[in-house]
Amino acid sequence: MRGLVSRSGPVSSYGTAAGTGALAVLLLVGICGSPAYTRWAADTLTSPDSAGGYYLRLLAWPAWLVDADGQAGGLFAANLRAVLLVALAVALLYLLPAAQVARVPGSISQFFSGWAAYVLAGGLAAVLAALLGPDPSMLGALQDASAGAGYGFLTGWIIGTASLGGRA
């Protein structure tokens, strides 16, 4: 496929692996963390004990709000986890250029780099949100880190797959 030509040379019509992964992060957190989705996942699932019901609820983990509804710390504290997840995931996607340093460059390293970035971002976002939030505690931070890393592990394949769409 021919790329576009610019003053500095040919430009690919595809984005970078980190760029496509970042777009997937924004879409995943934006859609599945939205109040409409989280309400739907909590209310309309007939069997939350099923694997499908569990996974649909898990997708809502980085829930964000439009109104703080009297939550301690206000709207920023209510959305801190989602904001940190997006910021850290995007930063880690750009900092982990696995395809450039891997012994076997290619799509497998892009996939695992995107997945690993999302696992780390989920755990770090949960810890920082717990420590910077309105009621910080070390026990809460450790428990949230476990939930965040678990969320990243079970949903990071989406980000890894999206990273396959870009060039290294």
Features:
single chain; 168 residues; mainly alpha; two-stranded antiparallel sheet; 7 helices; 66% helix; globular
Number of domains: 1
| Number of helical elements | 7
Largest sheet: 2 strands, antiparallel
Outline type: globular
Strand arrangement within the widest β-sheet reads 1-2
Give helix and strand order, one letter per element, not per position.
EEHHHHHHH
Helix content: 55-70%
Would you give an account of this structure?
There is one protein chain. The protein is mainly alpha-helical and 168 residues long. It has one domain (16-163). Helices cover 66% and strands 4% of the residues. It is built from seven helices and two strands, in the order ββααααααα. It has a two-stranded antiparallel sheet. A hairpin with a 2-residue loop joins strand 1 and strand 2 (9-11). Helix 1 (17-32) packs antiparallel against helix 4 (74-95) and helix 1 (17-32) crosses helix 7. The longest helix is centred in the last third of the chain and has 26 residues, at 107-132.
Element layout with pairings:
Elements: E1 4-6, E2 9-11, H1 17-32, H2 35-43, H3 51-58, H4 74-95, H5 98-101, H6 107-132, H7 138-163
Antiparallel strand pairs: 1-2
Helix pairs in contact: 1-4, 1-7, 4-6, 6-7
